[in-house]
Amino acid sequence: MELAEKIKKLKKKRNAVILAHNYQLPEVQDIADFAGDSLGLSIEAAKTDADIIVFCGVYFMAETAKIISPEKTVLIPDKDAGCPMADMINADQLRALKAQHPSAKVVCYVNSTAEVKAECDLCCTSGNAIKMIRDVLKDEKEIIFVPDQHLADYVSEVTGKDLIIWKGFCPTHVKILPEHIAEQKRLHPEAEVIAHPECPRPVRALADKILSTEGMCRYVKETKTKEFIVATELGIIHRLKKENPGKVFYPGSRHAICPNMKRISLEKILWSLEDLTYEVKVPEDTIIRARTCIDRMLKYA
Ligand code: 13P
Ligand code: SF4
Questions:
Q1: Domain spans in the chain, listed from the N-terminal domain onward
Q2: Which pLDDT tens digit goes with each residue over 184-231?
Q3: CA Rg value for the chain
């Protein structure tokens, strides 16, 4: 309680805004001005008039906020909160792949580094990938998709597009196994399965709906269904419960915890506001080159 009060006071004094991803710890989500998915957080970063953004998520998300709002100070309370999937491809590797397919359009999932985004034509999130590929790239013959093989496989499945796929993956989502979901379905036969597109195909095949984290929050509110098996990182269950008190949520797998998302605590948020740490910096030329594909992503909100 005391920590939360200190954070609120200092946030006001510094004209700061706190953005938190849906996978953050419950107390972090609760102190945030806005909780959402990668797309929603990018939109908030674009429209805030705060001087400082305290980004409670992983590094690529804070970097994206910096690219969108270069004039603002963007802080991440733990500089080691990275996304292993984003680090599965670097700019050199992407340039080498592009050299093999010189006429291909290049799409990156937002879970990628700023230097990788700077090499791409389009950036998408799990919330708008299908729409973007269908609309913007419908006539393209060759499309490179990096770094998530499972999101790429899902996009390819739905759009019928053949993609050149980088073999990255989310170490948290691949821990959700079909047998975990099957067991939960056996225990809760009335429940609907909602899964994130970062889940491998055998898990997606058991799902009723494939949704981004914000898509899950929206869907659960709208539908009459009362019970859900949630196949994504477990942090989201806090928000789902809070927004839907009459509904019940079962973890798709108890192993689905992203250690990087959990690095951020109230203490670290307070230190971040006190010491203005850790400032996220992106070289100016990378900002300019990455901005085009991020602007396209924001248009497909
Ligand atoms: P969302 O954009 O759906 O919130 O997903 C981000 C992420 O890191 C999923 O692992
Ligand atoms: Fe990256 Fe996976 Fe963690 Fe999302 S859940 S931040 S994709 S490691």
A1: 2-83+261-281, 86-170, 173-251
A2: 999 999 999 999 999 999 999 999 999 999 999 999 999 999 999 999
A3: 19
